[in-house]
Amino acid sequence: PYNVGTGNAGSDLDMQVSLYNEQENVLSIYNPGTLLSSVADTQLNAGTYYIKVEGKGNQYAPAYASLGSYSMHAKIETNGTAILALRKLDLHGTVNRGKHQLNWQIDLDEEIVQQTLEVSVDGRSFHTLADPGTEARTYLYQPAGSSAVRYRVNINLADGHRYYSNVVTLHDNNNSNWPKLAGNPVQSNTVYISSPGNFSYDLLNAQGSRIASGKLSSGINTINAPNLSPGMYLIRYSGDYGQTTEKLVRQ
C-alpha cells in the first residue's frame, strides 16, 4: 500500500492476497499480521492461477475506513533454486466402519503457529472441524450424515503465510454399500461374498498376515482359501470410497 506521502505516510490499507487454482479452489492465503503488504512465496506447477487482492485489516490498521492503493510485483524462479518454507502438505483419508481416518504429512522449515482441520459438504464452503494442535498429523472422525464429506488441512506459519492441503473426499461407509459375507461362520475353505459392485479384497489371519487377495464383482463371489484352519480371520474390502473390514469365523 502506498500514497503520495513520504514512506507511505497516511496509508492504512492492509492487503490480503488469496491464490486460487484453475478450478477456483483456494491454495494459499497471505496476510502477515503486523504488515500492510503481503508476499506470496510458493511453488506451482504449470497451469492457470488466479490472485484475489482485498483489504482486511490487522492489529495496527483496522479494515474500517481504510484508505490507500496498492501495486503488484512478481518474480518467477524456474531453475529450482528458490527456497520455500513449505515443501509438502499432503492429506490422505480412509473409511473404516463409518469412521473417517485422516492422516497428513508436512515438510517445512518455518514454525506452525496454528493448524486446523476443515470440513465441507459442498466442496466450496469449508468450516473448522477441529483444532488438533500444531504437532498432530492424524485425526479420527465419525460424520453424522450419509453424504460425501470433504476435508482439508489449514496451517498458519510464523512468517504470516497460510497454506491449504489438497482436498480429500470420503463417502458414507454404510454396510449396504460394501461387500458382505454370504454365510458366517464358514465350515470349509470356500467363502461366499455378496458384493454390490467392483471391489478388491484381502483375507487376513489374526496376526494381520495376508492369506489371499483378489477382485470382487457385482453379485455372489466365490473365494477358495486353502489351508483355512479353524479360527478368526478378517476380510478387508477396498473401493473408491476407502476401506472397511469384516470378521470371518472358520469352524
What this model shows, in words?
There is one protein chain. This protein has strands at residues 15-20, 26-30, 50-55, 86-96, 99-108, 112-120, 127-130, 138-141, 149-157, 161-164, 168-170, 180-181, 190-195, 199-204, 210-216, 219-224, 231-239, 242-250. The model has no long low-confidence stretch (mean pLDDT 81). Helix content is 0%, strand content 46%. The radius of gyration is 25 Å and the shape is elongated. Strands 1, 2, 3, 6, 7, 9, 10 and 11 form an 8-stranded antiparallel beta sheet that branches. Strands 15-14-17-18 form a 4-stranded antiparallel beta sheet, with no helix packed on it. Strand 14 and strand 15 form a beta hairpin. The protein starts with 14 loop residues before the first strand and ends with a strand. The chain is built from no helices and 18 strands. The chain folds into 3 domains: 1-84, no CATH class; 86-170, Immunoglobulins (Immunoglobulin-like); 175-250, Sandwich (Immunoglobulin-like), CATH 2.60.40. With 251 residues, the chain is mainly β.
